[in-house]
Amino acid sequence: MSNQSKKLILNAINALNKALVQMESEVDAPSAAAIKADPGASPKEDSNGIDPTKRPPLKNHIFANSLPENDLVPIVFGVVVDGDSDDPTTRPYNQNNFDELLKEWPPAAAAGLIIGSHDEEAQQYRALQVVSILSNSEGLPTIKGKNVLDIGCGAGYITNEMSFLANKTVGYELTDNSPIDQAARLSTDHRRGGPLFTSDKDEVIKNGPYDFILLHDVLDHASAPIKLLELAKEVLSDDGVIFIRNHPWVSRTGGHLYETVNKGFLHLFLTPNEMSKLGYKMPFNLKVTRPMASYEGWFEKVGLKVSNRKIKTSPIEPYFTDKTLKLGGRSILDRIIQVTWAGKIKEEQAILILKNDTVDYQIKKIDIN
Question: What is the pLDDT of residue 218?
Fold first, then answer.
C-alpha cells in the first residue's frame, strides 16, 4: 500500500471517526478524587451496575462458570430430548432447538468488521484505524516525534504504522510463537529507521524510556497483566502516557469466536464442557466478570492513575431477554447470568456490564510530590 493511499484512507477514517463520536454512548472520565475513592466507578453510576460500597474484594472479580452444570437448564447435544412435558418452553435444551435458536441469534460483530488473522490488507487497514483513534483521542498527546512502545504488538501492523510518525518505535511481542520473523524484521525495517521488533524484555528496557506506550487488546489476554503494567510503568517517561484498549471477556465479542460462529455473548451462554462438545475454541482470555473495577484496581496497585476513560457501548437486543425461546421459561440472559456469574447478580446489573464493548484508558504515573 503506497503512502499516498494510506494518507487518503487515514483522512477518510478521521472523518468517519468524528461522525461516529456524535453517535457513540460514552461515559466521561471520572475525576481523580472519584478514582481514588472508588476505582472502577463512573461519575454517573457504578460501571458494573452495583453499589460501589458493596463491591466484592478485587480477588473475586475474576471468576466464571462456577455454577455446577446440573443446576443449569440442560443442553443435550446430538440427541433430541423431549422431556416430560409437551410444552416446548419446559423441555431440556437440545441440539435441534439449539440450532434453531442460533438462526435468529444476534451477531457478535458486523460481518464487515471481522478481520481474519491472515488478511494482510485488512490488518493494515485496521492498523490505520487504530493510529487514527490515537491521533483523535481527546487529551492524548501526539506521538509525532516521540519514542513509542507497542506492548503485545503481534504481527506488528500497528507498530509499523506508528513508526511513520514517531521518532523511535519498539514493538514488543509477548508470545514465543510470535508471528514476527524476528531476524528478518531486525535486519531490514530497523536498519532503514523503521520499528524495532523484539521479544526480549531487556531490549525493551534498554531502548526506553518511552513517551507513549500502547497496549491494544492485550491485557484481557495476558496471563500476568499486573507484571505487564509494572513493565510499562518502569519504562514510561515521567510525563509519558499509556494508552490501553481493553476488550472485556464479558463483551459480546469477548470470546473471539466470531470467525467460527458469529453470535453475540455465545461464549458466556455455554459452559466450557458444552463449548468443547461443539468444537468451539477460544484464545486465552482472562475471565474477568467485573471488568472496570478489575482494570482500575490493577492500575492503582501498580501506581498508575487514570487520566481519561472512554467506554463504547452497544444495546442488548430484546432477543436475549425473551423468555419464550424453549429455555424452560428462562431467557438467554438468565442462562448467561447462571453460567458467568453463578446467578449472583441481577438482570439489570448484567445488562450494564454486557453492553460495554470496549474501554479505552489513558493512564499516567501517580505524582510522587
Answer: 94
